[in-house]
Amino acid sequence: MVPITRRALLGAFVLVLAAWPASAQAPQSRTIILSTTTSTQDSGLLDVLVPLFEKTTGYSVKTISVGTGQALALAARGEADVTLAHAPALERKYVEEGKMRNRRLVMYNDFIIIGPEADPAGIKGEKSAIAALKKIADKGARFVSRGDKSGTHVLELALWKLAGITPAAPWYIESGQGMGATLGIADDRSAYTLTDRATALAFAKRVKLKTMVEGDRPLLNIYSVMEVNPANGPRVNAAGGKAFADFMLAPETQAVIKTFGVDKYGQALFVPIAGKTDEDFK
Amino acid sequence: MDVLAGGVREALRLLVSGDAEVWATLRLSLLVSATGTGIALLLGIPAGALLALTRFPGRQLVVSAVNTGMGLPPVVVGLFVTILLWRSGPLGAWEILYTPAAIVIAQAVIAAPIVTGITLAAVQSVPPSFRLQLLGLGASRVQMTWMVLREARLPMLAAVMAGFGGVISEIGASMMVGGNIKGSTRTLTTAMVLETGKGNFDVAIALSILLMALVFLVNWALTAVQQRSS
What we know:
heterodimer, A: 282 residues, alpha/beta, D-Maltodextrin-Binding Protein, domain 2, 10-stranded mixed β-sheet, 12 helices, 10 strands, 21% strand, B: mainly alpha, MetI-like fold, globular
């Protein structure tokens, strides 16, 4: 019995080795690493754009979806070749430091403040996001923060700062998780939270929270693409990074972005803005 | 409850319809974890046997370290393997971060102490008189070790099960060193996290059912081998 067992195990092991895809290690010059935010992946946009890019250029893309803070930090270490992020103030800082280059606006969607239907802070229909946050803090109404240095979190902190408030426990809850999980926690605790519209739409079936504040200028969620400075580390694929950045701005890609999400949510999730600058959104 | 029922229905639908993406994910999980466990066996069995059959100063310290390693948090392994494999890291020239090979390395590191620890216990459970007898019959040390390992083969199958079960259900390291890249490093567990993040709970439930079914089938096969041999 034993030899058969041993041979079977050995056979299984050899089979496993033989079944390894030969393409597992493509030559690096044709491979690029894209560091980006979770929202681009969770919305499904990259599942459409990346294969399109790979097909038209022959590059293969490794997409690493993390919070914007980490996406930029990885790029600054030269662990990525191109970054798609949504934290303009933070991005400009990296560009000024020379870590990132050629920052170009790609698209925007918007953030909304959502909360329980009972609306304990009375902010429904409030035009100003900052005024709404002030009311939430005054009432001590529960608010769930991402607390993960993501683009959403960075914007939220900037809004609190503008409101002149240092949010703190017990009414201020830090989830430390992605947008989807944070929505779940906010729903469970009947709390307010700041979310991008795409994720809120994706969770509309499961989460009972209602839109409270929308359309305020500071709530615009602007995505930019940046190329990584090859000086950041060894093996940065500058040509590949540039190819992906150029692709995001190409008219054909922008056309795809413009209609993305219509079939699933009845409305587009992103607005393409190639060629625009920060000045246009002041 | 409708979420659960929907999940079960979705799982059946994905299985029956032969959804290409799900099968590719299933295949990758199986390949990566089987290879990782295989490497852990190659490292762990000799190490465990050596630790069981030799006496040297500091042995107790090493055995304690192995036993601690059996509970090595995958996130810790993921973090250190990521840093080693970074482009700027010591093994950056390999350029294998965010590939299945990186997940294999991390999973082998996670499973190796488990295999070593269980092998150690299995070999030690073989009565010392058996070893003395073999040596008395004129067996060389290598022959003796081989015979003892054969004697301990059944409890050692538990090492395969524990190692494989540990790594295929592991998430922290796979996410960090693999990056959850669609069609390349997306395993069952990382796909589950992603689908939960997207709000697709029924798909996440379907994937978890598939994962548990896969682990069950593998353990069933190994158990059959173990029970038949005994």
